Task: structure prediction
Amino acid sequence: MNAGFGMIGEHLTAPVHPSKPPVFVGGCGHSGTTLAKELLCAHPAIQRTPQGINLFDLDAGTRQHTIAEWNADCARLRRPRWLAKSASYVRNIEDIFGAFPLAHVVLMIRDGRDVALSLRKRDDLESGVQRWLSDNTAAKPFFADPRLLTVRYEQLVRAPEATMRTVLEFLGEPYDADIFEFWQANRRRYEVPDGLGRSLHRSQDQSDFMTLRHWQVSQPLYDGSGRWRSELHAHEKAYIKRHANELLLELGYLQDDPW
Result:
């Protein structure tokens, strides 16, 4: 047992079974956190945890019980570590390292123009821009922490093998090309008809978002970057430029991109 991989202080007293520290995946919503999770959880050393759970939204007792269950799953399935994914972990990085000092955090970053375009379907473009600004600004103080790796969505979808080699090296895990077959197991698990998935993907109505997400993770890896160029209206581009240009530049999205 290695207690250093569990919650510290009064938060956790349950035994800790995994032999390696946990992995947390976060980032502004619609930045590729789900894709990163699916790829990493297809690795034989990493155990997935249920979606929709942020440990730091739970009360202390529920948190302790949840972690104990995840630890037990690792022991039962003989996987040395678990992975927890929530977009909102982008705001819990200090909490993560305070509770799990040896944890690894994979932080997804994506062009704010594509993020705003995607979030527009669930809310509105202005809210999407503000969320992208707020979430990435909250994460910036941790960019230099060696326990955190920033991964650009664009790099992941355009150079998947090289990017995942880097991610797995950061985690101390061997590269496994089979992770890119994650979608086949999801296709059997979710059984979302392609016609329905494509219709939801094209639609502005995101009320059935989970069905859409299940369809998306049941598809081979594809490049969804750069859609903002053709799908954002002129006034929407102007709004983003007015409010987000500085952070886009800081994060490296405007060097060769006159817009």
In short: Residues 6-16 have pLDDT under 50 and may be disordered.
